[in-house]
Design a protein that fits this description.
The chain is of the alpha/beta class. The chain is 40% helix and 17% strand. Helix 12 links the parallel strand 10 and strand 11. Helix 3 packs parallel to helix 5, helix 10 crosses helix 14 and helix 11 runs parallel beside helix 12.
Length: 384
């Protein structure tokens, strides 16, 4: 059959059962996104920042749904913070980024060489041609699933409206089951050496089964001395939170995410700092309905607010907790203006509930029960 390149890419997604696709408007990606929406009779909203869009798709793949990110070379550069951490996780279902290379720069702010960036990151990738793009997408998903890694395809953006012949294939869909796996879904300094060795084994087709897993730390006993004081403030919250019924809980690379470890086991997926909200969006889009995102005030201000805007735009009823300790506790305790978080949250006041006595188990439990029973977006600010 004959179709435009944008339609061929969309058809490949449909034939593979790709259910989560994200896009920040740009040459190539926009045309595919529009065609995918039209061909599936959906109205998926656009994203505003590539780091968020990439993370949503990555999280959905962890949670068992084939996913895709559509963006230009310049866009994947903006997503690199998330991409590099994604390489240290295992995905459950395939995740492929289609990168549209604007070789002339006429629809971009510059001409960018994308290959050196991808090569330096370590993500597996391939340069595809318009006449081969259907088959290359079809083969990219099993490769992503074989290696448990994200995969990228680069295509010339100028070809997006050109027409080519292709042969559709059938019986390509698969079902995947998510299982919590702290060693491969939580990017954390305690696991960094192990996760690096696993990543190297994936890239070089090594035997990852011979890599010894480290013992999981016990929290707070095994935390470095410099973090114990900060973590101790969170204990009353997590003593209650660990018993709250949830489907998926996401976190940031921060002290609070140490509570992913025993005896709390309260967080399931962690990548970059500020990434918990986009991760929660992806988990929700993968079919989980009771999803929580935990972040510190620094993480939220640095990147998390981008995810919050996306959650509001998508009208998703996720639950967000912001630990407002007025400092960057994980990086040395640098102080944060206490008014800054409140200024950012002023536009979301209708969603905000405060915990004013973070050592009071009765207040913590009362707020958590109220928020967990809500059917809309909720933000809890825990004020230390």
């Amino acid at each position: 059959m004959s179709a435009k390149v944008s339609e061929i890419i969309s058809q490949a997604f449909i034939d593979l059962g790709v259910s989560v696709v994200t896009n920040v408007p740009g040459l190539g990606g926009s045309q595919v996104y529009n065609d995918f929406n039209a061909m599936t009779s959906k109205q998926y909203p656009l994203s505003f920042h590539e780091e968020v869009a990439f993370t949503i798709a990555h999280s959905a793949a962890i949670c068992g749904k084939r996913s895709a990110f559509l963006g230009k070379s310049q866009g994947i550069a903006k997503a690199m913070n998330s991409l590099t951490d994604a390489l240290y996780t295992d995905i459950t279902a395939g995740f492929v980024s289609i990168i549209f290379d604007d070789k002339t720069g006429k629809s971009s702010d510059n001409i960018m060489e994308i290959e050196p960036l991808l090569k330096g990151s370590g993500i597996p990738y391939r340069i595809t041609k318009p006449e081969l793009v259907y088959e290359d997408i079809i083969s990219a998903y099993p490769e992503s699933e074989r290696t448990f890694l994200p995969y990228a395809l680069i295509i010339d953006a100028a070809s997006i409206d050109d027409t080519y012949e292709f042969d559709r294939r059938t019986n390509l869909t698969r079902n995947f089951i998510y299982k919590r796996d702290i060693y491969h879904h939580v990017v954390h300094p305690f696991l960094s050496d192990y996760q690096y060795k696993v990543f190297a084994a994936k890239i070089f087709d090594g035997d990852r089964s011979v890599i010894k897993k480290p013992d999981l730390p016990k929290i707070p006993d095994n935390l470095p001395d410099k973090y114990i004081e900060s973590a101790a403030k969170y204990i009353p919250f997590f003593e209650i939170f660990k018993s709250v019924k949830r489907d998926i809980t996401t976190g940031d690379t921060s002290i609070s995410s140490s509570f992913a470890f025993p005896p709390y086991d309260a967080i399931d997926i962690v990548t970059y700092i500020g990434g918990s909200i986009p991760l929660a969006i992806g988990a929700f889009m993968a079919g989980n309905r009771n999803v929580w995102a935990l972040t510190g005030d620094f993480g939220f201000l640095s990147a998390g607010q981008l995810g919050l805007m996306e959650a509001v735009n998508r009208q998703l009823p996720i639950k967000i907790v912001i630990f407002n300790n007025k400092s960057a506790a994980a990086t040395g305790g640098q102080k944060i203006d206490k008014k800054l978080l409140l200024r950012i949250l002023a536009g979301y006041d209708q969603f905000v509930t405060h915990i004013t006595s973070p050592s009071d188990p009765f207040e913590i439990e009362s707020v958590l029960i109220e928020v967990n029973n809500s059917d809309g977006l909720k933000i809890i600010v825990v004020n230390y």
